[in-house]
Amino acid sequence: MRNLLQLLIVLWISLAISQNKQVLYGMTDIPQNLLLNPGSKIPQKLHIGVPFLSQIHLNGGSSGVSAHDIFGNSNEDINTVIRNKIFELSDRDFFSATQQLEIINFGWLAENKTYFSGGIYEELDFILYFPRDLAILAWEGNSDYLNYEFDLGQVSTRGDLLSVYHFGANKQINNKLTVGVRAKLYSSMLSFKSTNNRGTFVTVLGDEDSPNIYEHKLQNVDMSVETSGLASLQDLTGSAELSKKLIGRAFFGGNLGIGLDVGATYDVTNNITASASILDVGAIFHTKDVESYSVSSNYTLDGIELLFPPLLNGEGAPPYYDDLEDEIEREVPIDTLYNSYTQLRPTKMNASLAYSFGRSLDGSDDCNCKKTDGSPARNQQAGIQYYSIFRPKGPQLAGTLFYSRRFTNSLALKATYTVDSFSATNIGLGLVADMGILNFYLAADNLLGYQNLAKAKSVSLQLGFNIKIDRE
Amino acid sequence: MKANSAHTYLGIFSLIIFFSACVKDTDFNQANDIVVSPIVDLDLIYFDLPAITFFDTIASIPILTVSDTTDLPFLNDQDIVEKLKRVEFSFRATNSIQREFQVEFQFLTEENEISYSSQIPIDQGTVASPVVTEYIENVEGEALANLTMAGKVAVSVTIPSSNQNLDGTIKLESKATYYLEF
């Protein structure tokens, strides 16, 4: 328990609604914006990401607790603090972490005016819902909780480590509409999932007919864990062997899957632009190195019944304890299955509505024209964004207000204010700078949190370098 | 705005992000003070013996003591022993036999040496009105150290006298409350 707690805290520190890149979304000067909306407007005619440096994305958070909540300086005993927090959190609170590393990314404008882009990135995605009842049971025991039904269905977690190969096309259909699509091939290195569990554990006082003081009951238990890529790792020794195996899987050696991103941008008027995208509509088909465990049971434990059989000389007493263990194994069987399974990717949705205003970028005072690439003709934009990601216990949503401003041809900034499951005070800032053909960007949210990382419930950061040649 | 000042902004922004980030007002050493101390209630052993258990009808002689033994391997499991701070045993006997009983628990080591024992006197009852005897035994400190040397328990039930006309049953239920600290 203590180790688990420390692990969660470390996870939290090392690493918003996972995967929300609200600052990056809509920043057309950043080629990686195409991964958030394949139908985005594209000002460049060519881009090549600097290998391994074109996008580094870290994101971690917990919806209900910060490190400061637990370890903040106070006179209160830390065990009281933790106990209070356990009771304050609900089973819909969660800990999550996402990390992405782009290995390569490239794109070019073909002669038919279609912008093709592709690349490879690696992604780690993890979410654990807070199993409140199990935390209470572990922290307090069952002694003070007679008749309380501990809900085992609160166990809900999933984790994935995968590499993604993608290729997409983007085309400006007319001077109002740009659309895009991206195909993805997933190669899963590791994956586990335990969702849709149910069942309760309860200790009740026995009635007149009960053989013993209590009855410990497992009721309607139906739980499972699906893993892929984990079983074969248990035999490995040493990190060198492990990384060799994982790298092999990253290059199509893992369990494969396919997915699709689609998106569009539409200029409603000269000043108003709407955009939307749906990402990772797809699934991974786990067929290799699959191991699933499941348990379903209704069982009541009463203790050990002594029978006092008449024993002949030298004869031992019956093996009551071994018999009880056998009974539990028989009545609460953990089945190991090797069946293939299909796992849906967590689908994400983005949408935005932006209003352009301010100085005209083409130098004329009144802008009755659009730039040929359809990028904003004005130097400032303000608007709203919507984001959602499908999670085991339903979608997580985020809403963002943003303001972006282009200062020079080589520098643009965007500021965001986001409300999501983690906080209502999430301010983000993004910057993109073109230095010659070198394109650099940096985006971070929860800036208020950086004043004291311990108080932040989530942190998200993206940065990267590209070579980029703009259209004339 | 010139490109140079743009780069200045870039630098300032990066610096603000990366060097203003800090962790304040926290004391992670408190992690060493975290103690998880659950209190776990679990059924222990139980039996329900009819009066005839205490009379050998074939040889027509009383059986004044019956015994049975069960392993309790978790008691001396080192992982548990280190975390166990106190144990409270609760016994409840329901006796409808017209005799008092002595129930003795002898906790035995692997070498069958008694490391801890407990005697429970049980009041006599009748079939018409069974008598309930409750008994609580708290084990901590040195006694707990002795208890956790044992991996099994021998239970003996002793009746002062018996005949084939005795009626009723003696039922014993028990639970243990384990006070743990991790």
Entry keywords:
heterodimer; A: 472 residues; mainly beta; Porin; 21-stranded antiparallel beta sheet; 22 strands; 15% helix; B: 182 residues; alpha+beta; Jelly Rolls; four-stranded antiparallel beta sheet; 3 helices; 45% strand; elongated
Question: How would you describe this structure to a colleague?
Answer:
The complex is a heterodimer of chains A (472) and B (182). The longest helix of chain A is centred in the middle third of the chain and has 15 residues. About 4% of the residues of chain A have low confidence. Chain A has a single domain, classed as Porin. Helices cover 15% and strands 50% of the residues of chain A. Chain A has a 21-stranded antiparallel β-sheet that branches. Chain A has 472 residues and is mainly beta. The mean pLDDT of chain B is 87. The radius of gyration of chain B is 30 Å and the shape is elongated. With 182 residues, chain B is of the alpha+beta class. Chain B has one domain: Jelly Rolls, CATH 2.60.120. Chains A and B meet through helix 1, helix 2, helix 3, helix 4 and strand 9 of A and helix 1, strand 1, strand 4 and strand 10 of B.
- Beta-strand residue fraction of chain B: 35-45%
How would you state the average pLDDT of chain A, rounded? 86
Could you tell me the CATH topology label of chain A.
Porin
Count of domain modules of chain B: 1
Task: Give the class-level CATH name of chain A.
Answer: Mainly Beta
Instruction: Using the coordinates above, name the CATH class of chain B.
Output: Mainly Beta
* Terminal Cα span of chain A: 60 Å
Tally of structural domains of chain A = 1
Cα-atom radius of gyration of chain B: 30 Å
Poorly predicted regions of chain B are none
CATH topology name of chain B, in short, is Jelly Rolls
From the helix content, strand content and strand pairing of chain B, which structural class follows?
alpha+beta
| Chain pair with largest interface | A-B, 66 and 58 residues
CATH architecture of chain A: Beta Barrel
Share of residues in strands of chain A: over 45%
Which blocks of ≥5 consecutive residues of chain A have pLDDT under 50?
Answer: 4-17, 365-370
Number of helices of chain B: 3
Give the strand order of the largest sheet of chain B, numbering strands 1, 2, ... along the chain: 1-10-5-8
Count every beta strand of chain A, where a strand is a DSSP E run of 2 or more residues: 22
